[in-house]
């Protein structure tokens, strides 16, 4: 695993792939409140479909030279990742109709301890003991985020959907890393955005969303902005995760709920004290799940080699 901080002749510096992921995390965090405002003008699944149609168009325009030579493996990767993106953003957007953007962001962050657990289930990569510790913290945070504590653990419809979205995000991160070395990043980015949009438009009528929204300048501006942001996020994720371990990528993405809560607070959102405590526990769970203390290392020499690689 490459480390987040590296040393050169002039001192310490953050590596470009990790820095890029940090920057898109800030953009990602700001998108929650933007989406919530956009739902004033469109139904949720149609909104997500339009968002990724705009993103696909933006990436296609800057990737025309890279689209030649597309193969079946890239199409398959695009379909798999695109479906995960559609499920992730679809459930999250529907959930934002009934919960705050800050609460949505904290619940979404639960995907971080899910990444190593799903890696274990799918690829038999045994999780570190700190992963289970982080998962415990995250679960306690989830209980507090429900607003009732342990006295009455009950998830609302919006919270349940957002949790399902967090599972989809974890799978998206894993699949992006799995395919990254086998495909052309630009082509797969275009394909996954196209398939995410198509999947949303296919499922929208099933969910009772049969009409496109009427034209509104606010909606147009939001969709263009989110489309460009989504295109940038997907391009950077696919590029950077070729050089960043999925678990390390997950811990960087964990800054997203903090940014989202800051943007939400600036927009006037105020979470109850218990929910704020839950959010703090989720963030602590995220950090704990990726923290590997020296006294847990079985082979210090081998670990040092990994840290320096």
TrEMBL record:
Segments passing through the bilayer: 20-39, 45-64, 76-99, 105-123, 135-157, 163-181, 188-208, 214-237, 273-291
Cellular localization per UniProt: Cell membrane
Pfam families according to UniProt: EamA (PF00892)
Keywords for this protein: Cell membrane, Membrane, Transmembrane, Transmembrane helix
One GO cellular component, as annotated: plasma membrane
Domain EamA as annotated: residue spans: 19-146, 157-287
Topology of the protein relative to the lipid bilayer: Multi-pass membrane protein
InterPro entries reported in the protein's UniProt record: Diverse_Substrate_Transporter, EamA_dom, EmrE-like
PANTHER family, sorted: EAMA DOMAIN-CONTAINING PROTEIN, OS03G0707200 PROTEIN-RELATED
UniProt-recorded name of the protein: EamA domain-containing protein
Species this protein is from: Acinetobacter lwoffii NIPH 478
Native organism taxonomy: Bacteria, Pseudomonadati, Pseudomonadota, Gammaproteobacteria, Moraxellales
